[in-house]
Amino acid sequence: NAGVTQTPKFRILKIGQSMTLQCAQDMNHNYMYWYRQDPGMGLKLIYYSVGAGITDKGEVPNGYNVSRSTTEDFPLRLELAAPSQTSVYFCASSGANSPLHFGNGTRLTVT
Amino acid sequence: AQSVAQPEDQVNVAEGNPLTVKCTYSVSGNPYLFWYVQYPNRGLQFLLKYITGDNLVKGSYGFEAEFNKSQTSFHLKKPSALVSDSALYFCAVRGGLYSGGGADGLTFGKGTHLIIQP
Hints:
The complex is a heterodimer of chains A (111) and B (118). Chain A is mostly beta strands and 111 residues long. Chain A is 0% helix and 52% strand. In chain A, the strands form two sheets. In chain A, strands 2, 4, 5, 6, 9, 10 and 11 form a seven-stranded mixed beta sheet that branches. Chain B is an all-beta fold and 118 residues long. Chain B starts with a strand and ends with a strand.
């Protein structure tokens, strides 16, 4: 049982480049989330989804976009990378009345 | 708006001694409280949760947490620390109707580094 799988594990981007962070879960969870983790700041919610075809903004959505075409996948898109987006990104999923299950993260550096 | 405070950036404990990692919260309605642990280069792992019922909640790896409504606290505890408990610990909260992660996810504290010295 893979749980939540994130790819890539590491990525270096130049300012202005774009990329997609992939997230897939095999637990048939309805809820999926994207968080970013910055040192000493905890986790901040970027976007979330309550089911296929439904997404909504979290606390820090600017500069990001998401889609949820299937229950399993929840990719995060960065269109014009900026140094402020240097962070570790975590995808998570949960079912009804269950804790969040996290992936192992994607470490992104924008230079 | 809901919030979580973890007042200590770092807690140092000698192996075998009891440990406490502090957490206070602010939320509208009934709080749903969680503790997660993060090891280096890994995602967060669920330790325990409080939804309702007994104020003392037991979780994974011998950890427990005590919910105190009057003090709006949910401190993480363990009677005897192990070196392998060294990690980053996060307290999280959401309020209102509980449904899994909830439609709007969890609000996390900034994390507390727990260091267990041999």
